[in-house]
Design a protein that fits this description.
This is DNA-binding protein H-NS-like N-terminal domain-containing protein. The protein is mainly alpha-helical and about 90 residues long. It has helices at about 5-15, 20-30, 35-45, 50-65, 65-80, 85-90.
Length: about 90
């Protein structure tokens, strides 16, 4: 039985840190480094239902990783000597 790329991606997603998952992550990173025209051109070859599902999956990952950005920002602010209170005062202006 032959799997489509999309089906293969779903199978790989279920695996932990397999070489296939690592390679799939590298593939996605490579895609992200392409021009918007190239990404759009490739996306036009994918059925809309698949694109919608991909968008949903990416949104789920983004939501689950928001804390990473908050932690990074908090660390950078602390390194610059900006306290939580100072930031809150600034944001409340």
């Amino acid at each position: 039985m032959s799997l489509t790329t999309y089906e293969m991606a779903r199978v790989l997603e279920q695996l932990d840190e397999s070489p296939e998952k690592v390679m799939f992550g590298k593939l996605l990173s490579g895609l992200g480094n392409q021009s918007s025209e190239r990404i759009q051109s490739a996306a036009r070859q994918v059925p809309v239902s698949v694109l919608k599902d991909l968008i949903y999956q990416f949104q789920q990952v983004i939501e689950s990783r928001k804390h990473e950005q908050v932690e990074t920002l908090a660390k950078e602010l602390a390194e610059q000597g900006i306290s939580v209170e100072e930031l809150q005062q600034y944001l409340n202006k």
